[in-house]
Structure formats: structure tokens, C-alpha cells
């Protein structure tokens, strides 16, 4: 199993190391061989040093791996001449067609909840963020803005039938899988179809796809109302499918609901490969201090194992993913996970050790 590893910048480096340590421990526990890591240098610091945002053959090597794992990329102090930041990962999403951005939002026991309502303990939803087009079609990294001059800049919000059909199918399949696991299995289309023709088209394709999934409960919400509802009654939602920029914003909001960005895992899935990374950034305000919560990265590692189980036809990798998810759940339940992010006393290394210890001590799965 070959993983392309892009650790990136700031806390990205520490949380990627944490995720790899946990990955190795779980693979060992489940009797699987160590992954082969191909480290690819990329990011803002690399750009400052070399003038390139990723190693010359980095994109090809990423493509050759079974999956890609990324820490975080970007430092606000290092920018291109137009003011935008160094973002080679946007090119990776584009190049590999990583249209399905899966961002789980789950309240763990004893983790801080920002809402007083006891139902906040039930929050367990997934934001499915389209990740290649929408308003990001025009991201500076792609140089596709329509007008750029001293007086005006125009960006493009692009919705295509091909990508949107795949996205909505992915969303309905996900809702169905969740239904089979005992969740509501309700899918909400989040858009702004009241104002934008492009987003009315997004909803129209949702309606076309839904006819193949009569068993899935559906709903609609405009994105502004969805922001309200995520604060007012997040427990009512299960799977939300949305445009790229909306998903970017809502996923940070939702991360905040369940403690903070250190809990915000992410999988970006395309037809041929997947990229796994925490949804947070390089957090320059806490970098180099062993303060980052590595759980978003560790949980992204579990998403990667689940993806690889299917891709490589190896169910032991799913067992390894379950071990990680269980260790996080148990850790919070038993108060063995107390991240500094939540006012606790455990830094990046201590959290990582608590998870690897739990995995190694686990009696659930004997090494084979
Ligand atoms: N996927 C990515 O690589 C990615 C995502 C978002 C931002 N960025 C980049 O990261 C840099 C910083 O961006 P930002 O400050 O807007 O967002 P950020 O996610 O880095 O930080 C936002 C806030 O959340 C906190 N935070 C984030 N992750 C945390 C963790 N694991 N544990 C504890 N606290 C955590 C930070 O300390 C900060 O207060 C920018 O250069 C931005 O472009 C990269
Ligand atoms: C850093 C940035 C390019 C990225 C995005 O906007 O997609 C980040 O915010 C994310 O959510 O993964
Ligand atoms: Mg974001």
C-alpha cells in the first residue's frame, strides 16, 4: 500500500506525523504490512525556498500512490503577487477530479459543545462539499478569472452536469449507507437556487438523480438558512450536499459546533484516487508549540483506510479504520483525550500517544 504524504506547512507537519503514527499502529494491530510512504515536498515554506509550490514530479508521484495524505498547506505571510496564497492542493483536486469532499461532523462525549441544548450531543452529520468547481473553478491557482484589471475582477461559479450528477449520486449513496447504519439517511440539497441560475441547475440535477433513490428522505435549504439551522438545530441534519464555496464555509462553522477545527476530518474522493486531510489549515497562531489537536488528521486517516479497503479489496483495512474511530470515541468517553484546543492538558504528541496506546492495547482484533 503506497501513500503519497504531503505534510505541508505549520501544524500540518505535526498532525500528518500523528496520523501516520496511528496508521502504522493500526496496521500492525490488524496484521497488515507497513504502508510505503512517498513524501512529497509542497507548500508555502517550500515555495519560499524553491520558487515552486510542489516538487517537480510531485503531482505524478501523488497520482501513482494508492492514496494521498496531506497535513495542511499555506502560510498567510507567503503570498503570490496577486495577494493569494500558495495552494498546490487546489491543483491536485482539479487534476485528479476529487469532486466529493466528505466532511464528517460528530459530537464526541465530553468534548465541548457550543450549544446548550442537550440534543447537541447527538450531532452526527456529513457535509458533502463539491470540491473541483463551483466558485473554486475560478480559484487563482487555476488562472480562470474572467476579468482582471485595475478596476474590476470577475470570477466564475461553474456547475457542470457531469460533475454534479456524480456528486449527487455520491450523496444519495452515502445517505443510503447511513440509513443502513441506523442514521436518518436524510439528504439535504443546500444551494442558492432562489437567486443563481447555476445553483438552480445544481438543484435541478439533484431532482433528476433523486428519482433513482425513492427510499432516501430529502430536503432543501438555501445556504443562508442552512447556516442558521446548523446553529439552531444541527441534530436535525444527516447528509448535506452543496457547492464548493458553501461547503468550505459551512464545514468550518460545523467544526466549531463540535469543538473546533481539530475535529474536522476530510476525505476528497475522485474516480481514481482520494486525498485525505484535516479540513483545517496550518494554524500559524499555534504552530511549533505542540498545541495542535491531531484528531482531525487521525480521523482523516481512518477515512483513508476505509477508502483503501474498498479500492484494494482488503477488508482488514476497514477493521483498522474501525479501531481508530473506536479509540477516539473511547478516549473521549473515558476522559483519556483532553486536547489543549478544548482547554485540556494534552498536546499533539500526548493525544497521538493516547490513541496509539489504545489501538495497541485493543483486544478487539487479534493480529493475524
Ligand atoms: N487544507 C488546508 O491545507 C488549509 C485549510 C485551511 C486553511 N489553510 C491555510 O492555513 C493558514 C491558516 O488559515 P486559518 O487561520 O484561516 O485557518 P486554520 O484552520 O489554520 O486556523 C483557524 C483557527 O483554528 C485553530 N486550529 C486549526 N486547526 C487546529 C488544530 N488541529 N488544533 C487546534 N486548533 C486548531 C487555529 O489555531 C486558528 O485559531 C492559511 O495560510 C490558510 O490559507 C490551509
Ligand atoms: C486552504 C484552502 C485552499 C482550502 C479550501 O478553500 O478549500 C481550505 O480552506 C479547505 O477547506 O480545505
Ligand atoms: Mg476551508
UniProtKB/TrEMBL annotation:
Gene3D superfamilies: Isopropylmalate Dehydrogenase (3.40.718.10). Residues 2-355 form the Isopropylmalate dehydrogenase-like domain. GO terms for biological process: L-leucine biosynthetic process. The keyword Amino-acid biosynthesis applies. Pathway: Amino-acid biosynthesis; L-leucine biosynthesis; L-leucine from 3-methyl-2-oxobutanoate: step 3/4. Its cofactor is Mg(2+); Mn(2+). Signal peptide: none annotated. Keywords: Amino-acid biosynthesis, Branched-chain amino acid biosynthesis, Leucine biosynthesis, Magnesium, Metal-binding, NAD, Oxidoreductase. InterPro entries: IsoCit/isopropylmalate_DH_CS, IsoPropMal-DH-like_dom, Isopropylmalate_DH. Homodimer. This is 3-isopropylmalate dehydrogenase. It comes from Roseibium alexandrii (strain DSM 17067 / NCIMB 14079 / DFL-11) (Labrenzia alexandrii).
Amino acid at each position: 500500500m503506497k501513500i503519497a504524504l504531503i505534510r505541508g506547512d505549520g501544524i500540518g507537519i505535526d498532525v500528518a506525523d500523528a496520523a501516520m503514527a496511528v496508521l502504522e499502529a493500526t496496521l500492525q494491530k490488524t496484521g497488515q504490512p507497513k504502508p510505503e510512504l512517498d513524501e512529497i515536498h509542497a507548500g508555502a515554506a517550500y515555495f519560499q525556498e524553491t520558487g515552486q509550490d510542489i516538487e517537480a514530479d510531485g503531482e505524478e508521484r501523488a497520482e501513482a500512490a494508492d492514496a494521498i495524505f496531506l497535513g495542511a498547506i499555506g502560510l498567510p505571510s507567503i503570498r503570490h503577487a496577486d495577494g493569494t496564497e500558495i495552494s498546490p492542493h487546489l491543483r491536485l483536486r482539479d487534476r485528479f477530479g476529487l469532486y466529493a469532499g466528505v466532511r464528517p461532523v460528530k459530537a464526541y462525549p465530553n468534548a465541548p459543545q457550543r450549544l446548550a441544548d442537550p440534543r447537541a450531543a447527538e450531532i452526527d452529520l456529513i457535509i458533502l462539499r463539491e470540491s473541483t468547481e463551483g466558485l473554486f473553478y475560478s480559484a487563482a491557482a487555476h488562472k480562470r478569472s474572467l476579468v482582471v484589471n485595475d478596476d474590476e475582477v470577475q470570477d466564475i461559479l461553474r456547475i457542470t452536469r457531469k460533475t454534479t450528477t456524480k456528486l449527487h449520486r455520491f450523496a444519495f449513496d452515502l445517505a443510503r449507507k447511513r440509513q443502513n447504519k441506523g442514521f436518518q439517511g436524510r439528504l439535504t440539497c443546500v444551494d442558492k437556487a432562489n437567486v443563481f441560475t447555476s445553483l438552480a441547475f445544481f438543484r435541478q440535477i439533484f431532482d433528476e438523480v433523486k428519482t433513482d433513490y425513492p427510499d432516501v428522505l430529502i430536503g432543501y435549504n438555501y445556504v443562508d438558512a442552512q447556516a442558521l439551522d446548523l446553529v439552531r438545530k444541527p441534530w436535525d441534519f444527516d447528509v448535506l450536499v452543496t457547492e464548493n464555496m458553501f461547503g468550505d464555509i459551512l464545514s468550518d462553522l460545523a467544526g466549531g459546533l463540535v469543538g473546533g477545527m481539530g475535529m474536522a476530518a476530510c476525505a476528497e474522493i475522485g474516480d481514481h484516487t482520494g486525498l485525505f486531510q484535516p479540513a483545517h489549515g496550518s494554524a500559524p497562531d499555534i504552530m511549533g508549540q505542540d498545541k495542535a489537536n491531531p484528531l482531525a488528521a487521525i480521523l482523516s486517516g481512518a477515512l483513508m483506510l476505509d477508502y483503501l479497503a474498498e479500492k484494494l479489496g482488503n477488508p482488514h483495512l476497514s477493521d483498522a479504520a474501525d479501531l481508530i474511530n473506536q479509540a477516539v470515541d473511547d478516549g473521549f468517553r473515558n476522559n483519556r483525550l483532553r486536547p489543549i484546543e478544548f482547554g485540556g492538558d494534552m498536546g499533539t504528541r500526548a493525544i497521538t500517544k493516547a490513541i496509539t496506546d489504545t489501538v495497541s492495547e485493543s483486544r478487539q482484533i487479534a493480529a493475524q
